[in-house]
Structures are given as C-alpha cells and as structure tokens.
Automatic annotation (TrEMBL):
<keyword id="KW-0769">Symport</keyword>
<dbReference type="GO" id="GO:0055064">
    <property type="term" value="P:chloride ion homeostasis"/>
</dbReference>
<keyword id="KW-0633">Potassium transport</keyword>
<feature type="transmembrane region" description="Helical">
    <location>
        <begin position="248"/>
        <end position="268"/>
    </location>
</feature>
<keyword id="KW-0813">Transport</keyword>
<dbReference type="Pfam" id="PF00324">
    <property type="entry name" value="AA_permease"/>
</dbReference>
<feature type="transmembrane region" description="Helical">
    <location>
        <begin position="551"/>
        <end position="573"/>
    </location>
</feature>
<keyword id="KW-1003">Cell membrane</keyword>
<feature type="transmembrane region" description="Helical">
    <location>
        <begin position="427"/>
        <end position="453"/>
    </location>
</feature>
<dbReference type="InterPro" id="IPR004842">
    <property type="entry name" value="SLC12A_fam"/>
</dbReference>
<feature type="transmembrane region" description="Helical">
    <location>
        <begin position="164"/>
        <end position="186"/>
    </location>
</feature>
<dbReference type="GO" id="GO:1990573">
    <property type="term" value="P:potassium ion import across plasma membrane"/>
</dbReference>
<feature type="domain" description="SLC12A transporter C-terminal">
    <location>
        <begin position="680"/>
        <end position="796"/>
    </location>
</feature>
<keyword id="KW-0812">Transmembrane</keyword>
<dbReference type="GO" id="GO:0015379">
    <property type="term" value="F:potassium:chloride symporter activity"/>
</dbReference>
<dbReference type="InterPro" id="IPR000076">
    <property type="entry name" value="KCL_cotranspt"/>
</dbReference>
<keyword id="KW-0597">Phosphoprotein</keyword>
C-alpha cells in the first residue's frame, strides 16, 4: 500500500487543490474547526487552529492591534452628535494640535476676570513685593500641579473626562468621587464668579444708570437681580447647544488677547507721553471725581468768584458763605497725575503694602494734610476701602486667576496626540500667563499712582477701570474686552461643569447622583445643567466677587492637591503600570506641590479650608460606605498593599504581647447540598464576639477535586460573602476543595492567614447529629479538630444549639452570661463575656463567674481571691463558689455509663459486620485472580507457587468463630462498665446538675471543654461525656484555651 504525502504552506491561503485534499478529513478536524463552515471557505483562517478554543478569551495579536489602531477616545456627550459624526455617520478623528487644543484654551481660562478687575487693587494694597509673593506662590503651585498632571496624563491613553478621569483612575473611586465633586463645585462657583464680574463691569463701567436700587448698601441687590437674569440667559444658550459656545470661544479669546496687548501698549506709551488722567486730593485724601470736573473749591467766571461742583459735597449750600466741613476748610485741593509713567519713580512708593479695615480712607502719605478732629462720619465724597484688607484675603481673591490649567486635559478627547499636547501646551500656557501676571504686577506698580491702585472701582478716575486708564488707545478696549471675556468664561463654566457631573454620575460611584447621568437624546446633560444653575445661583446671591473667589479657590486647591498626591503615590509605589512618557517629574516636586496647595488653602481662609475638607471627607466616606465597588487599578490600592505588606512583616518580627491579644477567628462553616451556609447564626455570633475588630476568616470545605468542583467553590464563596455582608461580619472567606472533610479542615487550621495575621482561635458548631449518623465521620472529624487545635496551640470555641443564638437585630433586655471556670487555661473564659458585652446584643447582660470547690478547699477564701482577681482584671462580675462534695456514684451514673459502653460495643459490631462483608468481597476477588493466574502459569509450562492472600477462607472462618466465642463469654447485656468511664461519667453528671441548677435561665453558658483522651480507643465515649455535660442547657459555648495567657492584670 502506497501513501502519498502532500505538504501545504500554512503561511499562504490554501489552494483549491489543497482544500479538496483535506475535505475528506472534515470529521476528524471537528474538535478544532467549526463544522458549520462548509464549502470553499472551510479552511480559511485556520492557520492558528491549535489556539481556536482560546480565541474568545485571548484574541489574536493582529485583531488586538487592529482595535487599538481604530480606537478613538471620544465619549458620548462630550460634544453634540451633530459634530461627533459626519453626514455619512462615520465618527470624526480628533485633529486638534497643541496650540489650538491646549495652549489657547488654557490661556483663555487662566487670564480673566481677576486680571482686569482686581489685579491693580491687589498691587496697590499688597505692594509690589507682596503682590509678587502672591503671584509667585500661586503660579509655582499651578506649575508643580501641571508637572504632576502631565505625568499622569502621559501614563496611557486619557479618554475624554480629563482631570476627573485622571484623579479617579489614579487614586480610586473614593478619592476620585470626592475630588471630582470638589472640582465640579469649583467649576460651578467659577461660573458665579465670572457672571458677577460681568455684571460688575456692566453696572459700574458700561451702563451705570441701569441700577434698579440706589448705589451703596443696595448695590448687592443690583448684582443679584442682574446676575440671576444673566445666569438664566447663559443657561439657555448652553441648553440650546454647545456649538454656539464653541463658535464664540474664538471671539472671547481675541478679546482677552487684545485687552492684554492694549495694556502693554499703554505701558510703552507712558514712556513717551503719560495719559491725561488726573486725580483730585483734598489734603492727602483721594476724592471721587465723577460728580465734578474742576479740582478746586472756587473758580472765577466773568471776574466773579463762584463755587465749583465740588463745593456742595462738603458744604450745606453752594454759596461761598455756606457752612463747610472743617477738613475741607483746613486743607487745600491738589491735582496729580493718575499715571506718572515708568520713569517717574513712583515704583518706590508702591513697593510696600497698605492694608486697612473697611471704611479706611485712601490717602497719599507723602502729601501734606492738616489734622482735624472730625465731627461727622460722612465719607461718601472720599475713596475708601469697601472691605477689610489683609494679605491672606488677597491670596484667596487672586488664586482663581491662575486656575484653568485643566482646560487642556478636559479636551483630551479632541486632541490628535493628547500624551504630547497636554504637557507641552499646559506648561507653556502657565509659563506665559505667569510672565504676564508678574510683568503686570511690576508695570502697574511702576506706572500708576498708589492711591489710584488702591481705588478698586476707579472712582477717583471718573469711574473707569484702573487698568483701563493705563491701556491704549482707550479705556473702552479694556471694558469691552473684559466684559466679553467674563461672558465667555461664564459660558464655558456652565458648559463644562454639567459634563463633569454627568461623567461622575455615569461612573456609578455615588448612587444618589445617578439621575444626573441622563440627558437629551444627543447626550446633553440636561439634569446636570439644572443642578449647576441652582448651585451657581447660590454664588450669585452672595453678590460679591471678593467673597466668592476664596470659595472656588478652596475647591480648585483641593483638586490640585489630589493631582499632586496621585503623582507622588504612583511614583513612590513604583507600580509596574506607572510608565509616563513625560519624564521631567519627581515625587519631591509633587510632594512640594501638594504641601503648597494645602498651605494656600489655609492661607486663603482656614474656615473655608476646613469646610471644603469636611465636604470631601463626607463624600469619601459615603462612597466607601454606599458607593458601587469599582476596581480601577488605582494607586491607593497599591498603597494599601504596600502598607499591608509592611505591617505583616512587622507583626511577624515581634512576639504578640498578652495585652494585645484578641481572638483572631477561623470560623469553620458547613455548606449544604445547595452550597448555602448551614448555620448563619455562627457568623452572627462571630460579629458579636469581634465587634468588627481583628481578623476573621470564614472557611468551608467541599469534598471532591478542584478540577471538578472549582465552580462550586466559587459559588460557595459568593454565598459565604453574601451571608457575611448580611450579618455584618468583617473578614475574609475561603472555600477549599479536598478529598475529604478531615484533610480540608486540617489544612485550614494549619495554613489559614498570612504572616503575623494568622488565626489564634477556631470557632465551630457542635455536631448535633453525630449520634444519628450512620458512619462515625462526624465524630472523628470533630475530635481530630480538637486535637489539632490543641497541638497548634490555638483556642477552640464550640457553640451548641448555634441556631438558637440571637441574631444581630435582637436585643437581650436582661439575663446573665455565666462562666463556669473549672480549670485555668489562659483566661479566655473571662475575656469572652467582656468582648460579647461590647456588642449591643449582649450589652445589658450581666456576667457571673462560677468556680468549683472540692472538699479540702476553703470556699470562702476562694471567693475573696476570685473577687480580688476580677478587680485587678477590671471586670465587673458576680462571683459564686459551688461546693461539690464527694458522693457515692449513683445508680443513674452507673446505668448511663453502661448504656454508653453497650452502644459503643454495638457500633463496633455493626462496623465489624460491614468490614466482614468487604473482606468477603475481597476474598472472592482474590480467589478469582489466583485461579486465573494459575491457569496462565500452567499454559506457560511453569509450576505455580502457593498464592499468598491477605484473607483465606480458613482464616475468615477461624476469625468468625473466635469472635462468636468471645461474645458468648462476655454477653453484651451482661458486661460491666469500665471504672475510669464510670468516674468520668460521674463528674459529667454532677457538674451538669450544678450548671443546670444555677444557670438554667442564663442567656449563655461558657464551660471549660475537657480534652479528648490520649488513647483513641475512648473517642466515642468522649463525645458522650460532652453531651452529658451540656444536657438540658439552651445556649452553650465550650471553650478550650490555646495554652497561653490572654488576659493580664497589668497595664
């Protein structure tokens, strides 16, 4: 027979001839190739048939790379669906570069309302040096944060979601949710700040006549009314569509850039020709010059001296003979340049700060002034401080002007290469804006008169913004530019904040926020927008830009603090996944940034800082307690693992002191045939005993092999976890599969736990049905567990009638926990009632201690000694000494012992008969085997040797006869009990009588558990003794010490 072999190149698609050749072997290929693919395409793509069954869980490298290549990090709701898809329905690939996508948005967000409305006032109040310190601190803080953010942003693909995504995935859901909500609140209050800035510009500089209420104390009401209207209008624009906001973004950015360029142009112009803005001083006091043109008391008109418009401000009439204020009469009016210019030397006067309480008049110290005792308190003609000023307040007001560094990372979904663009664009934007701020601080101080700088609203320069009178060609450039800049920033805040809240809600980590994850059909977050508008309105009702600024400073600083913390934690842990492309970071920089953020929080406002931290802490604990479980591979989990490893190593190094001893429980649970927990109350009792402290390991054993019962083991673990959660048992659970229960429990007793966190006590339920069981496995397992825990120096707690123990919802109103202290084995008996009394179930139960006195003991002295011992142990308990006199062994005891031994003998006979049947089956098998081998030997011509069998027929017959003869001599019903068994039964009966008499109404009885006999022949009797000892008692806990002291009288 000739065979022809055909070799086919598997690297190429199979040819038609090759397919026909292998078609006949289709049936043989079925285990590896899908039999449904008939026809010509049957063998296509089968080069990797060997791995076919793993394709579902482990895709081919080619398909994985294909998915990565087609990956777009756009998420639903980031932009409107009209923009997210082209007309043919294909999603657009992000095309934004570093300049357009990161640099310009960051610039627009950082430069804003504070620069135009408050920076000149900050320079005037804090001085050039103080302002330089404020600006430097804030800019260094944001720069360090940007370095940390760049490291996190370049450590893998950053989907749309920006800063919240980075923090939550780096620090875990608890920190992520807390910081995410802080960032959301900061962004929302930023919207309030920008709207208040818009209204301030509108009512102060553009349309001063539009006020609904009179100026002065009623000015905040104007801010509230117009601010609310502006908020509603902006919310409607955002609701209609984000694309309108995006289209206007370029206009707003152009306004900001033009305003800054106008300011620099004005500074340069002061070198050539200072602006013609004059301020009027009365003595050394600055006057509001919006109501008069001439800075003089009188003027000559047609050779007649008349009073000016300024006269009625200080006199009771416009006539020269009117009664005027004394300070007006005593001091002269002086007119000086508002902007002396760069070369004027005014920088020397503006170096140092000039703080003061609210109502302080703004005075030029170098100007002469006649001191006059004021009789009136009217300061309305003068320029004065509207609020009390101090350094830390200025830090809080200024900090919002450096926020906005997250704008680039928030647009990560729109960037062509986010990992390259975010670090470069953000850091360049911070460096640029820092240069602008620092240069502005120096230039303002070098160009503008000090009293004008301290004039917050520009009252001394005809109600123009101070930065506006410096700008060239006109103050209106600044007014219009800052107005549109604030409008744009407010719209962007109202656009970004709802999306941030929607991202948090969709993560599902905060259950009560889930409603805000929904929106319009195109993904617009409608409900989140409504909540944002509501919170924004709170900021507007405050009606003061200076009061709102520190609030959002807190929330942004907390966000930046956690960005730095995330980077520091990841760097120090050296997690394998921490491989940022941005290399210019170090954990010390992150730590410095974190420290600076925390310091700035308390510098700005210590009480706001505490409130922000409490809010973040409450959110953290809420997510920890109620939030959905998320595993994001975060750094805090890695930190926990490192801390746990360190603590475990330290625990193992030092021997545990008696004062630190607490029961670390290994709870041996049984699962029924449905893999449900057989005794849930065992876990209730564990919770009551532990009160959530220390180590608890809940274990169970399934009989079989892991390959066949692996899924059952997982199901059993899930059921255990469910019961543990229901019973509020804090701990770990584990289900092992073993060939038999005995080996499984033995392995758990030996190896459960890790390092210093190993169990020192075993808790199990009493095997109630051991008498009714057909085999003796339950009894043997129990006794072997007792022996093994003793050998391992572990305590053992055995609960009888565990299903009658109270659950965690019950409250025992009264009653006793009785301790029967027969032998001292470490003091565990006295410690357990104290631990139970810490739980609300047993809290109202009193503790009683009974001890047994023999005939030759002094029971009175024993009681005194025991009371003193308990006093030193700081335990409150009643003490009673029970005297047990020597008495004759009763007929009842004798009869009970006899019945016990007869039962044991009967069980042995039953076991023996079963063994005989097995031996007979073995005999038949051996005989068949022997005859078969003898036949084979004869056929081979060999002489068969004698077959040696374990059981021959003769041996079996002789063994049976011997046993029958033995039973004839000693009839089961005529046997006499063993003397040692009678004595043990006597002890059990007498002790049970005493316990039943004294503790029949107790809520719980704790008894010393006697050890099993060293000779294993008495095992069956041992269980009987324990049954007699506990007879008639409802709830019993047998306690066997681990061979070490667990309670001490020393502090």
């Amino acid at each position: 027979m000739t065979q022809t072999l055909h070799f086919v190149d598997l690297s190429k698609p199979p040819k038609k001839h090759d397919k026909a050749l292998f078609y006949d072997s289709q049936r043989e290929s079925r285990p590896f190739i899908n039999p449904d693919n008939d026809g010509e395409h049957y063998y296509d793509g089968k080069n990797m048939a060997l791995f076919e069954e793993e394709m579902d869980s482990t895709p081919m490298v080619s398909s994985l790379l294909n998915k990565l290549a087609n990956y777009t990090n756009l998420t639903q709701g980031v932009r409107e669906h009209e923009e997210a898809e082209n007309e043919d329905g294909v999603r657009r690939v992000p095309q934004m570069g570093t300049f357009i996508g990161v640099y310009l948005p960051c610039m627009q967000n950082i430069l804003g309302v504070i620069l135009f409305l408050r920076l000149t006032w900050i320079v005037g109040t804090a001085g050039i040096l103080g302002s330089f310190a404020i600006v430097s601190m804030c800019c260094i803080c944001t720069l360090l944060t940007a370095i940390s953010m760049s490291a996190i942003a370049t450590n893998g693909v950053v989907p749309a979601g920006g800063s919240y995504y980075m923090i939550s995935r780096s620090l875990g859901p608890e920190f992520g949710g807390a910081v995410g909500l802080c960032f959301y609140l900061g962004t929302t209050f930023a919207g309030s700040l920008y709207i208040l800035g818009t209204i301030e510009i509108l009512l102060t500089y553009i349309i001063p006549t539009a006020t609904l209420f009179e100026e002065g104390a009623a000015m905040p009401n104007n801010m509230r009314v117009y601010g609310t209207c502006c908020l509603v209008l902006m919310a409607l624009v955002v609701f209609v569509g984000v694309k309108y906001v995006n289209k206007l973004a370029l206009v707003f950015l152009a306004c900001v850039i033009l305003s800054i360029m106008a300011t620099y142009a004005g500074v340069i112009k002061t070198l050539i020709e200072p602006p013609e803005f004059k301020i009027c001083l009365l003595g050394n006091r600055t006057l509001k010059n919006e109501k008069f043109e001439t800075c003089a008391k009188t003027k000559v008109v047609k050779n007649i001296t008349v009073t000016t418009d300024l006269w009625p401000l200080f006199c009771d009439s416009e006539y020269p003979n009117a009664t005027c204020k004394e300070y007006f009469i005593s001091n002269n009016l002086t007119e000086i340049q508002a902007i002396p210019g760069l070369l004027s030397g005014v920088i020397k006067d503006n170096l140092w700060g000039n703080y003061g309480p609210a109502g302080t008049l703004i005075e030029k110290e170098s100007q002469p002034s006649a001191p006059v005792k004021e009789t009136t308190t009217d300061i309305s003609p003068y320029v004065f401080n509207d609020i009390t000023t101090f350094f830390t307040l200025l830090v809080g007001i200024y900090f919002p002007s450096v926020t906005g560094i997250m704008a680039g990372s928030n647009r990560s979904g729109d960037l062509r290469d986010a990992q390259r663009s975010i670090p470069i664009g953000t850091i360049m934007a911070i460096l640029t804006t820092s240069f602008i701020y620092i240069s502005c601080v120096v230039l303002f101080g070098a160009c503008i008169e000090g009293v004008v700088l301290r004039d917050k609203f520009g009252y001394s320069v005809k109600k123009n913004p101070v930065i506006g009178i410096l700008a060239w060609p006109s103050p209106w450039v600044i007014v219009i530019g800052s107005f549109f800049s604030c409008c744009g920033a407010g719209l962007q805040s109202l656009t970004g904040a709802p999306r941030l809240l929607q991202a948090i809600a969709r993560d599902g980590i905060i259950p009560f926020l889930q409603v805000f994850g929904h929106g319009k059909s195109n993904g617009e977050p409608t409900w989140a927008l409504l909540l944002t508008v509501g919170i924004c309105e709170i900021g507007i009702l405050i009606a003061s830009l200076d009061a709102v600024a520190p609030i959002l400073s807190m929330f942004f600083l907390m966000c930046y603090l956690f960005v730095n913390l995330a980077c520091a934690v990841q760097t120090l842990l050296r997690t394998p996944n921490w491989r940022p492309r941005f290399k210019f970071y170090h954990w010390t920089l992150s730590f410095l940034g974190m420290s600076l953020c925390l310091s700035l929080m308390f510098i700005c406002s210590w009480y706001y800082a505490l409130v922000a931290m409490v809010i973040a802490g409450c959110i953290y604990k809420y997510i920890e307690y109620r939030g959905a479980e998320k595993e994001w591979g975060d750094g805090i989990r890695g930190l926990s693992l490192n801390a746990a490893r360190y603590a475990l190593i330290r625990l193992e190094e030092v021997q545990l002191h008696t004062k630190n001893w607490r029961p670390q429980l290994l709870v041996l649970c049984k699962l029924d045939s449905d893999l449900a927990v057989k005794h849930p109350r065992l876990l209730s009792f564990t919770t009551q005993l532990k009160a959530g402290k220390g180590l608890t390991i809940v274990c169970s054993v399934l009989v079989g092999t892991y390959m066949t019962r692996g899924n059952d083991a997982k199901t059993g673990e899930q059921n255990l976890k469910a019961v543990m959660a229901a019973e509020r048992t804090k701990g770990f659970c584990h289900v092992v599969v073993s060939s038999n229960l005995r080996d499984g429990f033995s392995l758990l007793i030996q190896s459960a736990g890790l390092g210093g966190m190993k169990h020192n006590a075993v808790l199990m339920a009493w095997p109630a049905g051991w008498k009714q069981a057909r085999d003796s496995s339950a009894r043997r397992n129990f006794i072997e567990t007792v022996r093994e825990t003793t050998a391992a120096h572990q305590a053992l707690l055995v609960a009888k009638n565990i299903d009658r123990f109270p659950d965690n919802h019950e409250r025992l109103k009264n009653g006793f926990i009785d301790v029967w202290w027969i032998v001292h084995d470490g003091g565990l008996l006295m410690l357990l009632p104290f631990l139970l009394s810490q739980h609300k179930v047993w809290r109202k139960c009193k503790m009683r201690i009974f001890t047994v006195a023999q005939m030759d003991d002094n029971s009175i002295q024993m009681k005194k000694d025991l009371q003193m011992f308990l006093y030193h142990l700081r335990l409150d308990a009643e003490v009673e000494v029970v005297e047990m006199h020597d008495s004759d062994i009763s007929a009842f005891t004798y009869e009970k012992t006899l019945m016990m031994e007869q039962r044991s003998q009967m069980l042995k006979q039953m076991q023996l008969s079963r063994t005989e049947r097995e031996r007979e089956a073995q005999l038949i098998h051996d005989r068949n085997t022997a005859s078969h081998s003898a036949t084979n030997d004869k056929a081979a011509g060999a002489t068969p040797d004698r077959v040696h069998m374990t059981w021959t027929k003769d041996k079996l017959v002789s063994e049976r006869n011997r046993q029958r003869e033995g039973m004839a001599v000693k009839d089961m019903f005529n046997m006499k009990p063993s003397q040692s068994n009678v004595r043990r039964m006597h002890t059990a009966v007498k002790l049970n009588e005493a316990v039943a008499k004294k503790s029949h109404d107790s809520q719980l009885v704790l008894l010393n558990m006697p050890g099993p006999p060293k000779n294993k022949k008495g095992d069956e009797n041992y269980m009987e003794f324990l049954e007699v000892l506990m007879e008639g008692l409802d709830r019993v806990l047998l306690v066997r010490g681990g061979g070490r002291e667990v309670i001490t009288i020393y502090s």
